[in-house]
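Input for the complex:
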Amino acid sequence: MATRISFRYLLKRVLVSVVVIWALLTILFLLLKAMPGDITTRLLNPNIKPADLQNLREQYGLDEPLWVQYLKWVRNYMVLDFGYSLRSPTPVIDLIIERLPRTLVLFTTAYLLNLTIGTLAGIEFGWKRGSVEDRTGFMGGLTLYSIPYFWLAWLLLLVFSYQQFGLTWFPPGKMTPSFESAFSSVELFTGVLWHLVLPVVSLSAVGWAGYMLVMRTSMQETLGEEYIQTARAKGLSPTAVKYKHAARNAMIPVTTQAIVGIAFLIDGSVIVETVFSWPGIGALLVQSILNRNFPVALAAFFMLGVLIVSLRLVTDIVYTYLDPRIKFGENQ
Amino acid sequence: MSSQTEGSEGSILQRYRRRHAGTYRSIGRGWERFKTHRIGVVGLGIFLAIVAMAVFAPFLSPHTLAWRAPSGGAASSLSDLASSTTSHPAPPQFGDPYFAPLGTDHRGADVLTRLVYGSRTALYIGLAAGLLSSLVGIPLGLISGFYGDTWIDEAIQRVVDIMYGLPFLPLVIVLVALRGTTTTNIILAIAVTSWLNNCIVIRGETLSLKERSYIEAAQVAGASDLRIVFRHILPQVLPLGFVYLAQDAAFAILTQASLAFLGLADSTAISWGIMLQWVQVTGNVYNALWWMIPPGLMITLLAAAFYFVGYSLEDVTNPQANP
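Predicted:
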């Protein structure tokens, strides 16, 4: 085979992703319909004239049978037509497009950092299992893993951004030059980077432990294998045994964790975006939920779902491509 | 044998003990293994301390929940009244004019008292969400594993696949926002989304157990599927269930804190997350540290305790992991 990934495998993964997105849409629709009343009773002045109300319901398509509403809902979402925000006459899609890259920048930076630090730490702790480093690192990692994101962010802001400790190294969120202008000059670009530091630190300080835990256990298991003894007996240097023989083989469970970890990190970035006023999709979701701006909230939720599904697809394919041991879907 | 005749004549308690001697021994062995993980013992210690805190809350807290700190002497004039509203939150006071070792919050309530009582909500949320996830995840995992490679397994696994693709916290946010921000709704929303890990792991374990010869023996002896699953497989996977119960509990506590921070939890509840929400709402994050630090610390401690116990248990139940 020229390429390692067969067309069938690719098709299967894409199909699964589409089904997930469809399920997401259906759940959203059901949730919306399970709400008492509908959008008109929730949002309008109760003194509205019955005729106007009827017009509005027709305009929103609320008088049609449920299945027609459902089909329209699915069709609209599939073509990214999310309707209009209730707070301003902007189409929701514009808000989403504006914010998507910002979320991606924050997410990708933290994700790669987590994966790198977590895996390296896992190799180290697994290699020296039972040592003081291992036990301290394991306990420290688990403790960091237990800190609520927003509380850690507050502590970081307290120490590094406000005057209490005499340090004002990093800005407390609230980017004044807009994110997009960052690409117009070097100065503005470093400005954005500066704003990125604390959010990324909050996400990574908590998140790296997830990968460390998996890598550490996997490394310990691998070190008990016979081929490691063989490698040692051949007289290979400890470094070669550790990285080339043990770590590379111990990486498989980390790939699974890397896929599961995407959703976990999205959770974190919703919180962290809110703390640091990072104007991404997570912050948009929270803000619009609190404002009862449901068209925007549901669209933001949907986009986060799509983001997770596509990132999972990409990670899955990349790993399958990189790792010859993963079988790809011919016969499991 | 003499012991057997004694057994039949002994009291019910003795007979019960003898019948379950094997179980006691294996629990004893598990405990010996667990004790070698210092981190697990530390976690168990913290957990028990917080349980004690919840049980004996009325005796441990310096005030009742209704207590409010007097605000700077008798309010004899309007200006006194005005200044008194600005005197809370107040830093720690030890006896003069009142006793509040961790200071007061914006309404003059004692932070320590709220902290002690908050342990009840935290334990309730953690254990209830953990138990619910196990009650959904373990049976589904057992069924899925026992009927591995049939349409039942396939159906359950597809549902799990789809649910794994959903954004967890956003889904909980939407669920809670639409259904109301009561503690029960929060627990349900967390459980709806967190049974997946339990299900997958239990399924994997069941798949491998199913191939053991003692299961085959039971099948040949004519045991029903139900009996095999509950009598022969369930006891084997239960320890693993506890591992995930502990992890789910930790995760639930952290999720509740996040929801509280976002303003999506019952703001009248007495919980650590809600305390932090009030710190934020009243704009005191960076100037009332006596109020902001302790609840976060308690959340971290309890979540860490659950994780410590959970990961040590995992080692106990999986001897291969530590040769």
